[in-house]
Amino acid sequence: MSAFESVSKGLEEALAFANGDLADAKVHELSVAEGDVAEARQKTGLSQAEFAKSIGVAKSTLLNWEYGRRHPMGPTWRVCSW
């Protein structure tokens, strides 16, 4: 699949989801202690790279969170619905 096709497919899925079509949606609802990013990721079963991509952050950002060098701030934590 070309980059264009991949982006186009993603946009179509995002629009369908925004319009209430949840047929192909992958929704992860997690119950973890606030701030425990590693636990949240492990509960999804995703790799660090996959999890970072799924929440729209760089893998390096995720690693900083997991190793306690930095912490997701207010809206970031809530938007991810961990």
Structure, described:
With 82 residues, the protein is mainly alpha-helical. The protein has two domains: 1-26; 31-82, lambda repressor-like DNA-binding domains (434 Repressor (Amino-terminal Domain), Orthogonal Bundle). The chain has five helices and no strands. The chain has helices at residues 3-18, 37-44, 48-55, 59-66, 74-79. The longest helix is centred in the N-terminal third of the chain and has 16 residues, at 3-18. The mean pLDDT is 77.
Cα distance spanning the termini: 31 Å
Helix content: 55-70%
Structural class: mainly alpha
Please provide the count of β strands.
0
Using the coordinates shown, work out and report the CATH topology of the largest domain. Answer: 434 Repressor (Amino-terminal Domain)
H/E topology pattern: HHHHH
For the record, what is the CATH homologous superfamily label of the largest domain? Answer: lambda repressor-like DNA-binding domains
Instruction: Please state the average pLDDT score.
Output: 77
- Number of self-contained structural domains: 2
Secondary structure tally, helices:
5
For the record, the CATH class of the largest domain is: Mainly Alpha
Do you know the CATH architecture of the largest domain?
Orthogonal Bundle
Major sheet size, sense and barrel closure: none
**Strand-residue fraction?**
under 5%
How are the elements arranged and paired?
Layout: H1 3-18, H2 37-44, H3 48-55, H4 59-66, H5 74-79
Helix pairs in contact: 3-4
